[in-house]
Amino acid sequence: MEQVVLSVELNGRHLKVWKENSHGYNRFYVTPLCIIDTSLINCTKDDYSNEPRYVFSFFVRLWDSLAAETVRLALKQKDIEAKASDILPLPMQMIRLKISNNVRNNIEVDSEWRSNQDQPNTVLFEMYTKSHGFCNRMLQDAKNNPQTFLSRTKLTFEFSMLIGQQTYRNLNITGNTIGKSKAFSNLENNYSNQEGIVYLNSDDMNSLVRNIYQEIAISEEVDSNYIPSNQETQIIEELLGLNLSGSSSDSNSNFKENVENKESDTNDRLALEDIVKFIRKNNANVKWSGTKFEPKGLLLYRLNTRNLKTKGEILYKRIVSTKLTSTQKIEIRPEPKYTTDLKNTISPIYFEENICKGNDPSTTWLKSNLGF
User: Fold this and answer.
1) Is the whole-model pTM more than 0.85?
2) Is the predicted pLDDT of residue 178 greater than 70, yes or no?
3) Hey, how many other C-beta atoms are within 10 angstroms of the C-beta on 157?
4) Residue 231 sits in the same domain as residue 246
């Protein structure tokens, strides 16, 4: 999500609005409302508990259509078109309820995190007390004077959001680790001369680098949460770009191939065209000039196996992805009708919108048209 693009007044408070561009269209995320619904508060005996206790249950409204419409109108005034269905509360992954430490002797709260993947508009919370009389008292206080009840208990809605993930993958290639490659050991033991020199064509060089990568990948340092991505091709290209061989040369000057000059009268055992077909089929590095076989031009890599094994760091690559969570807290608030009059409850957006349309911006019109 981008930074805050708007702040909208609703019910005597300001809701922050974030913008996200995803799959070619805009989506807007808004601060959750966190309003207690006093009409559904209940106090019952907990027959499922191992210990005798009473459950004080209530719903907290996180979002509603009025909030979505209010934000939509506010965006429209800024020349930003959006549908109400694309205006949502913040994507809360985990939620829980917290309470003031001063009331914990009488009230118990399950403060464990719980999943919020389905993103409901209202959430049920429960608090527990051992006294039936105290549970009923909380019920009456919450219904008759919710502002004081919330002020005393300090009920707080906590939620966590996924803002990124931090995992890593370290790939460190040195001369010592290259020496563990089977392909490299084969070159060193069977093909290099006394000075450790061996010549490789491009295909052989690619095979060597891929073998080195596969050997190193087995022992590389990878965080347990890391999800592999398509990095192999990029790493192999970087290895090739390091010029492991140290030099390259043309085969005509550094690679001598002796091919005898075959005269036409020596073809009694094998026809010339059969020889050419055989060369093509096996990709032999020679060509027929018309009078004799000549070596083709070939770019070779001169590899010094001794020097390469003694090198320190040849390639170090650290791939990091970030996935972090952020925890936010919002005090649970009473319904607007308990805190202020109607005019201060409704967002100024509605007054401005209806004045522009020539409608009556009075409390009577708003009450009948907005359902207050």
Assistant:
1) no
2) yes
3) 24
4) yes
